[in-house]
């Protein structure tokens, strides 16, 4: 990794270590946990969209698979929560691998519509299989147990997701700096040129799609156990769009941009709650302003500006 990446990773770790000691109450601790969960999902999605240049408008579907695996398997079959989490991630990876090859033969708007359709199919399945999933009303999720201890308090959950976030940032930065990451960037630049220099375009597209889907599935399981209840809203279209928006606002092809985008767009709806009835309008105006004045995303734009001494 480059020196700047190590500095950024160190800053992230320092902030994660300090937060529990400065947050004033459980409300802010809960908000920090949700920010960290979203940040991990968005990091995985940014690897797909920002670095590989492949759009996904149905990514929340993979989140839903992981969440319901952690609800259905322990509840109906008595599986241990960790085993259910692993099974959900494996099933998600398998589904992503199967659908990726036909989907990634498409480009542009056709690719976007195909991924959107996949997310909708998963959402409909979760709503219709009421005998297993509870239908539109959802179902409770058993508590997560680690090494014989049940995770219950916000502080316990915070340290779990903080560790997952730190590992995700480190792993993503290492991946980007590896030959695999360089192949992804080449793929984003030009598929034809990538093929000319020997990059197996299909294999890399499928691999990064599967990796991104597994990121989402694992965090879907974590979210389900943390909240204690899961509904099909985990996998709905609007959640997918929210995740993509976090990628774009924070900055595509930027791991730290993913964190900033997730933090801002997780906190912003809470901050706008005082605008009774107008929060959606203000939220949209903020996003429009970001797109107009920061078209490359917040972190890349500011980095370029200050890097040039402007």
Automatic annotation (TrEMBL):
It comes from Malikia granosa. The keyword Transmembrane applies. GO terms for cellular component: plasma membrane. It comes from the Bacteria. It is a multi-pass membrane protein. InterPro entries: ABC_transp_permease (IPR001851), LivM-like (IPR043428). It is found in: Cell membrane. The keyword Membrane applies. Keywords: Cell membrane, Membrane, Transmembrane, Transmembrane helix. This is Branched-chain amino acid ABC transporter permease. One of its GO terms (molecular function) is branched-chain amino acid transmembrane transporter activity. The chain crosses the membrane at residues 6-23, 35-57, 77-98, 110-126, 157-176, 208-231, 243-268, 280-299.
């Amino acid at each position: 990794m480059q020196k700047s990446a190590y500095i950024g990773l160190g800053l992230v770790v320092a902030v994660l270590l300090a937060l529990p000691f400065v947050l004033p109450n459980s409300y802010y601790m809960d908000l920090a946990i949700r920010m960290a969960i979203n940040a991990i999902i968005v990091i995985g999605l940014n690897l797909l969209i920002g670095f590989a240049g492949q759009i996904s408008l149905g990514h929340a579907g993979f989140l839903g698979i992981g969440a319901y695996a952690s609800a259905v398997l322990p509840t109906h079959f008595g599986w241990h929560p960790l085993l259910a989490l692993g099974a959900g991630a494996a099933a998600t990876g398998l589904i992503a691998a199967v659908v990726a090859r036909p989907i990634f033969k498409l480009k542009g708007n056709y690719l976007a519509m195909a991924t959107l359709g996949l997310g909708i199919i998963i959402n409909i399945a979760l709503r219709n299989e009421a005998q297993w999933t509870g239908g539109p009303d959802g179902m409770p999720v058993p508590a997560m147990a680690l090494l014989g201890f049940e995770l219950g308090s916000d502080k316990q959950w915070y340290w779990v997701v903080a560790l997952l976030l730190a590992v995700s940032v480190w792993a993503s930065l290492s991946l980007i700096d590896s030959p695999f990451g360089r192949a992804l960037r080449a793929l984003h630049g030009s598929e034809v040129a990538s093929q000319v220099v020997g990059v197996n375009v299909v294999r890399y597209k499928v691999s990064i799609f599967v990796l991104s889907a597994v990121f989402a599935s694992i965090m879907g399981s974590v979210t389900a156990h943390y909240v204690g209840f899961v509904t099909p809203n985990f996998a709905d279209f609007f959640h997918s769009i929210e995740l993509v928006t976090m990628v774009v606002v924070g900055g595509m092809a930027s791991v730290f941009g993913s964190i900033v985008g997730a933090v801002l767009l997780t906190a912003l709806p809470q901050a706008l709650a005082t605008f009774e009835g107008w929060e959606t309008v203000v939220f949209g105006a903020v996003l429009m302003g970001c797109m107009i004045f920061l078209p490359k995303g917040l972190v890349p734009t500011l980095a370029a500006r200050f890097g040039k001494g402007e």
